[in-house]
Amino acid sequence: MLKELLISIVIASPLCEGEVVDTLDAVLVETSVKQIVPVERMASPVSVVSMAELEDRGIDSPKELSAVVPNLYIPDYGSSMTSSIYLRGFGSRMENPVLGLYVDDVPVLNKNAYDMDMLDVRRADLIRGPQGTLYGRNSMCGVLNLTTLSPSVYNGVRASLEYGSANTLSAKISAYDRTADGLAVGALVGYRHSDGFYTNEYDGGRCDRYDGVAMRLRLEKKLTPDLYFENIFSAGALEQGGWPYRQYVDGKLLPTSYNDKCAYSRLNVTEAVKLRYEGENCSLNSVSAFQALLDRMDLDQDFTAKSMFTLAQIQREAALTQEIVLKPKQGWKTDWWNWQSGAFAFYKGNRMSAPVNFKRDGINELILGNANANIPEDIAGGYDAPLAVREDDFVIGSEFMISTFGAALYHESYFTFGKWLLTAGLRLDYEGGVMDYRSDAAIHYMFRPTMRDWKRYETLYEGMVDNHYVEFLPKLSLLYEAGDLGGKGGIRAFATVSKGYRSGGFNTQIFSDILQNMMMNGLMADLGVYLDGSEEGVKAEHTAYRPEKSWNYEIGANMDYKSGNHRLNASASVFYISCRDQQITLFPPGKSTGRMMANVGRSRSMGAEFSALYDFKGFSASAAYGYTDARFTKYDDGHADCSGKRIPYSPEHTLNLRAGYAFGFRSDVVRHLEISADCSGIGSIWWDEANTLCQPFHIMAGADVRLDFKWFGLWMRADNILSEEYDVFYFKSIGNSFFQRGKPFRWSLGISLSL
Q1: Residue 476: is its pLDDT beyond 70?
Q2: Closest to 339 in 3D by CA, of 347, 328, 354
Q3: Are 740 and 244 in contact (CB under 8 A)?
Q4: How far is CA 376 from CA 367, 384, 529, in A?
Q5: What does the alpha-carbon distance between residue 555 and residue 575 come to, in Å, rounded to a whole number?
Q6: Are strands 142-148 and 121-128 parallel, antiparallel or unpaired?
Q7: Is-contact 114 89, C-beta < 8 A?
Q8: CB within 8 A of 229, min separation 6: which ones?
Q9: What ranges make up the beta strands (E) of 523-618?
């Protein structure tokens, strides 16, 4: 049940009906159009999780891979939109990720869509370290390749039903078949519901309710003896609450209590067409995809019972991607030289509206409070609050049209000299972005000492900003194979140097702060008080941020051993990453309402990773451990010098241990009983750049039992058995601090069917 934590292999050949072959004894096939070297011969640490492992552990989304991959941390907080990913010390809560995500060779361009249901995923390959040569942007710390079940690999019907804590219900059914003329067809539909685990004390309802549906349709056919066609259509829709944040005051967490709507909804569609031409001297792969995303986020931005301000963010995004990969065959390659070359291009258009609605408490504290505090006594005329606003609420409207586009050419060569494998690669990557923006607001104000009627004041901020940059991404690696790889096992040692980057972008969530500053300065100027802008606020130059770049240096080794019923796989590596212009999420000082991405000086990360899997007859045990020491080496934002401090939100340690035993039965009805237990540890996590708040290392225990019959299976799972209390997120809003607690003890019961 725990096989293939490090290496899992699936044969892509016709199978018996209802049968999935997943064995270490099989020959590895390519699971990605860009995979030319088997995963066990890659000069990078690779965690490979098979379908059996995913299902045994109840891993339903990418964020749950944190439990099995060293140094990977994807916290479960907020909503499905907030897919914060931290790997080897780097990551962010907004915009561009450090981990690239590919589903059936199609890149997911919007991080909002990373938190997805992993339905019928055949295997998940997470390659750590920069993968810029083959994958380009936003793969600075690694790439996650998800390969879904293919009707060319599996024929039959699969279904499952699961019920658990918080009235959580998951259901899925899929069918795969091949027709007489060679057309392979697969279809899947899934549904998930949860009442939620967190209560909003303001109204007594649950914050994090969830309803989601997903579907996938897959067609595969051999059009000619040399041409293969594949079409994959997928769609998903969800609605959920979220943001069960608790205010932190004087060292204590207050109950979650907010009075305005917090919710998130998403509709996403992907249409992909894959073509593969198998010529005499080469193979040519084409992957074309269209992605559409419509999502909406509603936020009680102050997260308190006060009527301060709310945010409604609506995105309408469409993206096109095209990739072509050329690989040699026969005469185009030799015994000592193999290679692949490719080209990639994409376009993404995003039309976004993000109106901020200021309510009475927000007007009094954030607008009037700041303005009245700056009015000299000789002008105030004896009034404590000389400036007044007529509206009980007003809207700062923000409209954005963001176009992002790019193209790349890349090449990797693989040279074999006896037991040595040398890989050399280079990618030329261009990316551009243009943002047209318009932000406006209108209010009626009165200056009591001199005015007897209201005066309308309008503020407008509009313009265009663009980013353009070119990146060269080299890679050089060396792998040495020792031992008898065709016998009981062997050892592979590797060293690699590579460059990675994640793209720059635009700060859309900061425009309300910019307009607030402009409005306050304009009102004060009307009164004869001229300000230079708020020192604590944000300005127009903060609307864009630069790419983040890194160099990765790594050495490691992996080993596999098999003798009789004993099997051991293990890997270990150490790394050093030097980063320039690191992107971090900042909460501006003072009572600012937004947040923004910013580039900060230099940083570095060093650490080590270890994974092991041992099988003996029915017994299996696995371990995965990661250590990261990630720090700023140069960081001074004008308010504090954080050089030498640990990079926030990324854990110092990650740990997972799991052991289980499978009891076999000599019966045509009852196949086997599996009992497993696991524990995961994460921490320490610093919550701010100054390292004043910390989540200590904590451990969560789990267990599961599975009983498999001939046609169906039963299981029971439990997570966080000891009800460990821990925090998964920290942030500030208008000067207040908030935490979100991790989920409590959870259980589930399920049944699966396979025909």
Answers
A1: yes
A2: 328
A3: yes
A4: 17, 11, 8
A5: 7
A6: antiparallel
A7: no
A8: 219, 220, 221, 222, 223, 273, 274, 275
A9: 544-545, 548-563, 566-586, 596-616
Q: What is the pLDDT of residues 350-404, one digit of tens each?
A: 999 999 998 988 888 887 887 788 788 888 788 888 888 898 888 989 999 999 9
pLDDT band at 487 (very low <50, low <70, confident <90, very high): low
**Phi and psi dihedrals of 536, rounded to 5?**
-85, -5
681 and 653 in contact (C-beta within 8 Å)? yes
Closest C-alpha to 50, from 15, 85, 21, 86: 21
Q: Which value, to the nearest 10 degrees, does the dihedral of the CA atoms of residues 509, 740, 581, 542 take?
A: 20
C-alpha to C-alpha distance for 462 and 433, rounded to whole angstroms:
17
Q: Which two structure tokens, joined as six digits, stand for 308? A: 């301060």
CA distance 517 to 588: 13
SS3 letters across 171-220: EEEEEEEECCCCCEEEEEEEEEEECCCCECCCCCCECCCEEEEEEEEEEE
Characterise 750 by phi-psi region: left (phi > 0), alpha (psi -120 to 50), beta (else): beta
> 394-432 pLDDT, tens per residue?
898 999 999 999 999 999 999 999 899 999 999 999 999
pLDDT: which is higher, 755 or 88: 88
pLDDT at 319 over 70: yes
Nearest to residue 82, comparing CAs of 695, 586, 729, 735? Answer: 729
Q: For residues 201 and 248, give the distance between their C-alpha atoms in angstroms, rounded to a whole number.
A: 15
**Burial classification of residue 54, based on how many CB atoms lie within 10 Å of its CB (0-12 exposed, 13-18 middle, 19 or more buried):** buried
Tell me the three-class secondary structure of 599-613, residue by residue: EEEEEEEEEEEEEEE
Q: pTM to 2 decimals?
A: 0.90
**Structural domains of the chain, with CATH:** 39-754 (2.40.170.20)
Q: Is the pLDDT of residue 136 over 50?
A: yes
Helices (H), ranges, 58-161 = 132-135
Token pair for 627: 């250590």
